[in-house]
Design a protein that fits this description.
The protein has about 325 residues and is α/β, with parallel strands linked by helices. About 30% of the residues lie in helices and about 25% in strands. Helix 2 packs across helix 3 (about 150-160) and helix 5 packs parallel to helix 6 (about 220-225).
Length: about 325
């Protein structure tokens, strides 16, 4: 099969399309012929040598794909050969074929094209896991989502609204404001021009119930300041750094929770349970049009460097995809 491999991992890395051996199929797995793969910021970190794949995971980039099931292990009965599916991966998506545990696979929503379905797994399951599982977001609560125009951000806005929550988000470009409002965000803040903490205070004097954060150090103190009593800060990335100074008194007085969360390194069983819950609760909302994957652009695999440049520049709204 053809796959995209990293050459010289680190600051001077490059990506090349090469012929490599097809993946082997283990018990409990299915082999998917990839139609499209999602591009994630984690891919940039991995090629830079800063985010190695979990033990036993493929060294290839790619955390989510859509495609057609080509083969199944003898013990798999949940998916059939020929079905069009989405898959959540620990790695290996930048290839024509990928072997994935069957519990991490779900059928493509009929309302979404096979190619665009690659925009669902990582973004929407990350949003679901952290808003619902970790953050316990409920109807009537207020949520602040940082990076609202990103793949996870656009998914999180829609999931929060589907839960009955009210949403504010931050973006880095005025051109993204209307896009996020169209998805259901009431307040959209250009963080390059305004202080999000001040704007949140004007929107809700009591603060917000949940903050979904990808920034880390530079936002930490302000994130705590905008939380209401018993608010939850869910940290899923550390783009500005991971080391912070914490005033424990603030946590105690406001009875706050600071929650760290990852997805890629979770066990197969944990991911399988997330996929099952997400499929049961949210896939019907794709069919009814309540939520939809937001695809910014699709690149052929030989333009993967262009796709990574767009991701690096944060010039997109929603997902960037690679198509075979």
């Amino acid at each position: 099969m053809k796959a995209i491999e990293i050459v010289n991992p680190g600051p001077q890395s490059s990506l090349v399309v090469r012929d490599i051996v097809d993946p082997t199929l283990s018990a409990g797995e299915v082999l998917v012929r990839v139609a499209a793969a999602g591009v994630n910021r984690a891919d940039l970190l991995q090629r830079a040598g800063k985010y190695p794949p979990p033990p036993s995971a493929s060294a290839l980039l790619g955390l989510e794909v859509s495609g057609v099931v080509e083969r199944i292990a003898p013990d798999v009965n949940s998916i059939r050969v020929g079905e069009e599916v989405c898959a959540l991966l620990a790695g290996g998506g930048y290839a024509e074929l990928v072997a994935v545990p069957a519990v991490q696979v779900f059928r493509r929503p009929q309302s979404v094209s096979l190619r665009e379905a690659a925009a669902i797994p990582e973004a929407f399951i990350t949003a679901y896991a952290n808003l619902v599982g970790e953050g316990r977001l409920a109807a009537g609560e207020l949520a602040l989502i940082h990076g609202g125009a990103s793949g996870v951000g656009t998914a999180a806005i829609q999931i929060a609204r589907a839960l009955g929550a009210r949403v504010a988000c931050t973006v880095g470009d005025d051109a993204k404001i209307d896009r996020c409002r169209a998805l259901g965000a009431e307040l959209v803040i250009n963080y390059k021009e305004r202080d999000f903490a001040s704007d949140i205070a004007g929107w809700s004097s009591a603060g917000v119930s949940l903050v979904l954060d990808i920034i880390g150090r530079d936002y930490f103190e302000r994130n705590l300041s905008v939380l209401s009593s018993r608010g939850r800060l869910v940290c899923i990335a550390t783009m500005s750094g991971a080391k912070v100074e914490l005033d424990i008194g603030v946590l105690m007085r406001k009875r706050l929770s600071v929650i760290g969360s990852v997805l890629r390194s979770r066990s197969i069983a944990e991911k399988g349970e997330l996929v099952r819950e997400f499929s049961d609760k949210f896939l019907p909302l794709f069919e009814s049009g309540v939520v939809t994957p937001i695809v910014d652009s699709v690149f052929p695999v030989n333009k993967v460097e262009d796709a990574h440049t767009l991701m690096r520049q944060s010039g997109h709204v929603g997902k960037i995809l690679l198509s075979w």
